Amino acid sequence: MSEIDALIPHPGMPAPEPTALVQPPPRDQARQTLLGMVIQRTFANTGAVIGIAWLGVLAVGAVGAPFLASSYPLVVKTTDGQWFFPLFRYLTAVDVMLPILMILAIALVSLRRFSARKRVVTFFLAGIVVATTCLLLIHPQRREVFSEHRELQAAGKVQWSISPPVPYSPRDRQRDLGYPTYLPPALGGPHWMGTESSGSDVFSRMIHACRIALSIGFIATGIAVVIGVIVGGLMGYFSGVIDLLGMRLVEIFSAIPTLFLLLTLVAVMPPEWNPYRLYAIMVLIGLTGWVGYARFVRAEFLKLRKQDFVQAAIACGLPLRSVLFRHMLPNGVAPVLVEASFGVASAIMFESVLSFLGVGLVDEPSWGQMLGEAIGAAGSFKWWMAVFPGLAIFFTVMAYNLIGEALRDAIDPHSQRSTML
Amino acid sequence: MLSYIVRRLVLMIPTLLGMTFLVFMVMAMSPGGIGGSLLNELGQLDSQQARAQKDYYERRYGIRDNPLVQYGRWLHQVSPIGFEIDVNLDTGERRWNNFGFKWPDLGRSLAMKRQVTEIFAEALPVTVLLNVLTTPIIYALAILLGIYAARHRGRLFDVLSSVSLLALWSLPTIMVGTLLIGFLANRDYLPWFPPAGLSSLEAHNMAFLPGWSVDGWERGWLLDRLWHLTLPVVCLLYGSFAVLMKLMRTSVLENLSSDFIRTARAKGVTEHRVLWGHAFRNSLLPLITVMAGILPSLLGGSLIIEYIFSIPGMGQLMVEAIRARDREVVLANTLVIGLLGLLSILIADLLYAVADPRVSYE
Amino acid sequence: MENRFGFKDFVNVVLLLAILATMWIAIKQFDRQWDDIKSIKSEVRALATAQNQLKNRIEDLQKSGVTAGPATAGAGGAASDAPTHALDDIRQARSAPDFAEGDVLVDAFGTNVKSVTALTYKDLYGRTIQNYVLESLATQHDDTLEWLPLIAESWDINDNSKAWDEYMTARRAELTAQIERDPTVLDSTRLMIRREQEKAGKPIPDALALTEQAREAWIDKQIREDPQRPPAMTIVFRLRRDVNFSDGQPLTARDVEFTWTLLNNPLLDAPETRNFYDNVESYKALDDFTMEFKFREPHYLALSMVAAFGILPKHFYSKFSIDDINDRPGLLMGSGAYRLEDPVNWGPGKLVKLVRNENYWGPKPGIVALIWLEIKEDVPRFTAFKNGQIDLFSATPEQYIELRSDPDIAAKYQAWEYKAVPSGYNFVAWNLERNGKPTHFADKRVRQAMTYLIDRQRIAEQIFRGFAQPTSGPFDEESPQSDATLKPRLYDKAKALALLAEVGWTPGSDGVLRNKAGQSFAFTLTYPSGSQDYEQTMLMIKDSLNDAGILMTQDPQDWSIFIERVDGRAFDACALGWGGGAIEGDIRQMFHSSQIAGGANNFTSYRNPQLDKLIDQARRTINEDQRMKHWQACHRILYEDQPYTFMLRRKSLVFIDKRVHNVRKVLTGLSGRTTWYVPGELQKRRP
Q1: Which of A303, B348, C395, C597 is the residue whose CA sits 20 to 30 A from B30?
Q2: What is the pLDDT of residues B29-73, one digit of tens each?
Q3: Residue A178 burial (CB count, 10 A)
């Protein structure tokens, strides 16, 4: 589906111009209900629930990756009675930060007593505190000796130990165990999903790749939405010359296939950015994907601008920022949410295509990169390198699309009518 | 109508300028820069000699100049009006003579040492062939199945199809392509299809149509080509097909529930006539609009497919050109793809007016 | 209702389109057939002319009463097997009892051939084609490495280096004195250097350095332009009189002179080749069959430079303008055993096919045509080989192992494993100086330690499946240039850590090596992207360095960027390979300190005055035994200093169809295709 650009309306989206949305209700209290209604309707959709469940699985994989797949055991008791906690020596700040934030998020979501705004603010404040402490305090051991535990075991020095369920790190190429490249999968064996071209465990790489896939999806789409909303909003609000110029910009970006543009940008990226390649790719995917959002927001704003409550806000002499973002945006942002859900799917797809083409990340586990190595130079086909990562991409993209569909049904009364037919 | 078309065509010019400018600047700012592709491909870096060569090209193509100047030069080269230029290779000086009409020139690929037009003349037909084969199949399948699903609303076929369409749409091309090659074009599994290329090596000596020859059955050039194109076309069509079929279904349903259909039914028109005579044509409208979006995205999609199936089309050309920092090819490619994209949007708008008498561009 | 576009119209339009498409395809097909017929016609025409010419020649010979036969055959007699002429190997093949003419050899290139035009071709593939079509004055025998006459009958080398040396010392002193008398002579040179630096956007050196540079440049210029300067060497070739080009025109010294004149035309798009042959100062045809070359500096490769250069026909190339030769991809004609079917119109996308030169002046090879298919991707090339569509196949180690165990392949193909003697090698280059400051690798003990830490044996075995071996230096182990007593440093972590500790790198609490300043030992290894072998090797290096407490970051870059970084010395360490190059390799460009400045090829900024001196001496020594001693001394210094970690020399793994006979392993690889033949009953392909 990656060939489907932002240009093509998504399934079930009949017209290129978004249809009129919910009429602007009286603000404040109505917004809550609208959001609540949307969430409620979305959860009523089986497809969306399945999608959310799968994303939950991915999120657990992304957050808990080091605890799920690592060559280092959590606890080791040696025969001479010493206790070690090898895994904790290697945890990075992000590894620690993510589970804390996830627990915090779950706790806040279940605390229904407080208002949503309070909960969000608490989350962000706590998040900043946690992130800074983690970054300041945690300095993992940088020299990675994956074979450490295996050697101890072989020497008979381990009395007992608890290892993660997948006892291989994504970059553990098992140099001490020969050169086990392209081992086929064996359920119950050491490598459930086999090993890849350099001898590391496919399952472990699959788990660790969740983090990259999810973060790229979110951040790239976030960037695209922000740019799209700002450009589209300005275009729709001011129209005239700004609109004309903006539309040219939109046209420029939508006439070049996104993949072409992205490939050019990534390929000519300065090598100095290489340490931050992941972030650079996120930004680039974001920079090439904002066009769709801009179109939607522009169309919405063109309509909203003429409505009374906006005119009233302008007449009151409210600053532009307030008119745009406090009064118009909440009413025009709904289709953007739907679009963003599909956007995440296509951002994940783009990342995997880049990795597949070999211009993605270096020595980082990625689904696309594994898929790209499935067909060897001699034409031998390692099916496990194609099936597992391929399915992971497929399920994830499908999950986002299901959620997007459900969101659209929940927000868009027009499509509801057609479903009710 | 004519004035509308002219206005749209004129508006395309700034867009094309913007696109090529964007791509040009990105390439100019990148390290390795525009001159990167000038180094020889031997893989042995004989720097002294490579430098001598680089100097030569820098003089010949003026690569050391300010990127803006170079972009201007490129624009001049592709524009249909301009000067005749004489370049003095020793000093790198340029003389501008005889202003007037000239043939637009896409330039000369620095990495491939050939005219870009010549390279395109080989690559473009391949990509166009892929798309020309795919688009009608997509439309035919989507229209027929969409109508079928709409008519059998809520039945098993419809329910199954609506779930599987979303799944189909979510299937990553890279996975489908890899799996198809891996399982259907592999001597370890089913060697039914060729793993790569556009035709067999011996297709050169085949007759055009299949038939019996001295050595027994021969599949012929046409069949051989189709055989090679099967998997790529399958890869290219399923995604767009999913979108279109869903669109068709929704649109047929919408039309069938509208007032004019109710009137028709009330008049006693047969159900068959209602569907094909009244609802069908109106249901095609959204599909026409979408066509504008499909063309550029099919071109982009062929990039992945051409890469996976090693088909020497525009997509593969682009990947190679980007890797080699082959400025002229990348720019020309952007220009051509952009132009095709913009034209297809325009054509779709016009078709819309033709198909729907209510729309007018006067 | 009537004029609406209904379903029926839709079907009609589709049908119409289908008919149009079919017509178009049919036309296309006719076109192809027409092309075929055209090529057959031109072939028939060429054959007819060839026949005529042959007839004429036989008549000529009969008139003059000489029987047709090889000119130099019998010179050595049966007593010695050693060839005395470059074509003796073909003669020998022809005398084999099962020798037969016929059959076509099909090989595959991994890319599209862009240009085969003489001198302006740009890649290995173009060069391969040149080798079959062009001939040189002499060639080096592929097994004995001796120079054997080909177009030349004989040659004289006049080593004038003594007189040249004397002149140089005297002139240099004179010029230095002149500068001291009048320093203003440098002014214009100084200005020029300054301008050039400005133009290239590089910092301008301070006054003292500028004067120094200007002085060197000025002296060099004066010497170069001095008409009185004696040549360092002169070589005179006497040409055979019976050589003709593939169109029947005789080859004379005028053609040789023309070839060199063409190369030195500044407008010709072959600056890199021109630069390489800069040492050839003058070339002159003394008469129709005598050619004289003079050299600027004494150099051991002088003979090979002029003797191995392919000769172009003057009457053919002078028909074309320089722009034509620069831009047209298929201008190639020579006197070799094979020729392009059409020497003018070949272009990319057309079949790369050489046919036997039926006008060949020497003994004709057995194979009547050579074809190279262009198959870019590995998998289809492999399939084509398995289906018997190509006769030669260079396999990766992985493919080789798989194929060798396949009984079908064993029955149909002969497998060859060999290491050609000017074999290339891979290396990791340690940058000694970055931004004017010494790096971690400035100390040779650190570099030695790095070599100890890279497990080359294991890389050879696991990644290259044993078809590669660790190397100890820039010279092939089998070449007399290398000192056979030096053995590659094999993996030894303890030794490496001890060496690193000596320099001050000791493991910190997290296992990472730190120096006294508390810096941890981390560096980036830059390498060209896109190759699985590189990728795997780098991972292997990364892991084993990590195990020792050194943090390595991978930095794969596209080739164009890679070169830019190497030229700008903007890397910590980089991995690359040097190709085989000349049979007796010259290491000046990689290791001589004069090659550091200005983006030349000593990109590690490695300096060793002793090595500089040895290299200069070796290059000037024409006497082979003495020269080898110098090279061996160079090898010892490089072994000690390790500016590179010399990695591996790989073996070539080739399958060749069994029907091809007389394929032999020789020192430089496999014997040439001109000596191969297919016995009559085994012949498979018609030309």
Answers
A1: C597
A2: 766 555 544 444 434 444 455 566 666 666 666 666 778 888 888
A3: 9
pTM, 2 dp: 0.82
Contact across the interface for A363 and C510, Cβ inside 8 Å? no
Q: How far apart, in whole angstroms, are the C-alpha atoms of residue C650 and residue C471?
A: 10
Q: How far is CA A117 from the centre of its chain?
A: 24
Predicted confidence (pLDDT) per residue in A202-227, tens digit: 999 999 999 989 999 999 999 999 99
CA dist C528 to A43, B46, C311, C531, Å?
Answer: 50, 16, 36, 8
- DSSP 8-state assignment for residue C231: P
Q: Which two tokens stand for residue A161?
A: 């130990």
Residue whose C-alpha is closest to residue C609's, from C622, C588, C585, C592: C592
What residue of A is the nearest CA neighbor of B16? A252
- Judging contacts by C-beta atoms under 8 Å, the chain A residues touching residue C378 are 377-379
CA distance C83 to C322: 40
Interface partners of B (3+ CB pairs, < 8 Å)?
A, C
CB pairs under 8 A between B and C: 130
pLDDT tier at C422, thresholds 50, 70, 90? confident
Interface ipTM > 0.90: no
Reading the block at residue C233, the tokens are 């060497």
DSSP secondary structure, C402-431, as one string: HHHT-HHHHHHEEEEEE--SS--EEEEEEP
Q: Which residues of A304-339 are buried (b: 16+ CB within 10 A; e: fewer)?
A: bbeeeebeebeeeeeeeeebbeebbbbbbbbbbbbb
B304–A3 C-beta distance less than 8 A: yes
Suggest the residue from A251, A354, A394 to mutate for an interface test with chain B (most B CBs closer than 10 A): A251
| Residue A389 near residue A206 (C-beta atoms within 8 A) | yes
**Cβ contacts of residue A357 below 8 Å, gap of 6+?**
A263, A372, B304, B307, B319
Quick check: helix, strand or coil at residue A157? coil
Cα C432 → chain centroid = 28
CB B29 within 8 A of CB A266: no
Which residues are registered as beta bridge partners of A77?
A83, A160
Q: Is B360 helix (H, G, I), strand (E, B) or coil?
A: coil
* Residue C684 contacts residue C486 (beta carbons within 8 Å): no
How many beta carbons lie within 10 A of that of residue C363, not counting itself?
20
Residue B236, SS3 per DSSP: helix
Burial of C70 from C-beta contacts in 10 A (0-12 / 13-18 / 19+): middle
Q: What crossing angle do the helices spanning A27-43 and A46-68 adopt, rounded to 10°?
A: 80
Q: Kindly report the backbone phi and psi dihedral angles of residue C138, in degrees, each rounded to the nearest multiple of 5, phi listed first.
A: -150, 160
Tokens, residue A18 = 């978004």
Q: Do A142 and C383 touch (CB under 8 A)?
A: no
C597/chain A closest Cα distance in angstroms = 23
What does the pLDDT average to over C161-181? 88
Put simply, the chain B residues between 14 and 43 with a CB less than 8 A from any chain A CB are 14-15, 18-19, 22-23, 26-27, 29-32
Question: What whole-number distance in Å separates Cα of residue B329 and Cα of residue C176?
Answer: 52
